[in-house]
Amino acid sequence: MKAEIGRVIFGQENVVEEVLIALLAGGHALLVGVPGLAKTRLAETLGTVLGLTEKRIQFTPDLMPADIIGSEVLEEDSGGRQHFRFIEGPIFTQLLMADEINR
User: Fold this and answer.
1) What gap in Å lies between CA 59 and CA 102, rounded to an integer?
2) Which of 12, 18, 68, 76 has the fewest Cβ atoms within 10 Å of its own Cβ atom?
């Protein structure tokens, strides 16, 4: 795994190892750093290498809870009956990249 990730992420061997430890232990990882350190690329690469579904949330000041968890929409079928359908938000994934959570 580390070798596959190392083909994409350069110079971050310690970070890669620690993130893998966190994931394999069933935990979470918080990556903090200046732009350009491949934090987002690492999350994308982990999803690919580990075969996980992954999604990304870009946090902004106007982000609403429904943007994260999803929402219900009212639909009407061909018989005229109405029902609610839940549309899942990005949190329903195996690997979630929450970008700029300090916003």
Assistant:
1) 8
2) 76
The letter for the amino acid at 2 is: K
DSSP-assigned letter for residue 43? H
With a pLDDT cut of 90, the percent of the chain lying above it is 83
- What pLDDT score does 102 carry? 82
Cα–Cα distance for residue pair 36/18, rounded to 1 Å: 19
Domain chopping of the chain, boundaries: 1-52
Within a 13 Å sphere around the CA of 51, how many CA atoms are in the beta-carbon half?
0
Q: What distance in Å separates the CA atoms of residue 61 and residue 6, rounded to the nearest whole number?
A: 34
- pLDDT tens-place string over residues 28-49: 999 998 888 899 999 999 999 9
Q: pTM higher than 0.85, yes or no?
A: no
